[in-house]
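On clarity, I found the account of how folds are encoded harder to follow than it need be. For illustration, here is how one protein appears when written out as sequence plus structure tokens.
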Amino acid sequence: MNIALIAHDSKKKLMQNFCIAYRGILAQHSLYATATTGRLVEDVTNLGIHKFLAGHLGGEQQLGAQIEHNQIDLVIFLRDPIGAKLHEPEVSYLVRLCDVHNIPMATNLATAELLIKSLDRGDMEWREVYK
């Protein structure tokens, strides 16, 4: 499975901790991330991550193109619903794309954990048929 990881600035540490906790599961899949999030996760997990540009420099659009071409199976976007900065990736754009293309997406830690555990159980295998 191809998993996209994105985090607003105030959630990057949470994303690192999430990826440390679920490193064993994530290591079995292909990981994609916007530049800073990808670098920070790589630093603490040693996982290989394909990094797009920074979100505000076009990484969000690069990820969106992958979603539009059905090349992403799951998106974990830890967002700051209150203090997101103007330069940070826009949530509504990616949510809309995931909804249109039937891609599971988590925008908070609770949903991210549910999706990653579902992935580990094999509940996401329908994505292979869907492709």
Observations:
- The longest strand covers residues 2-7.
- The CA atoms of residues 13 and 40 lie 8 Å apart.
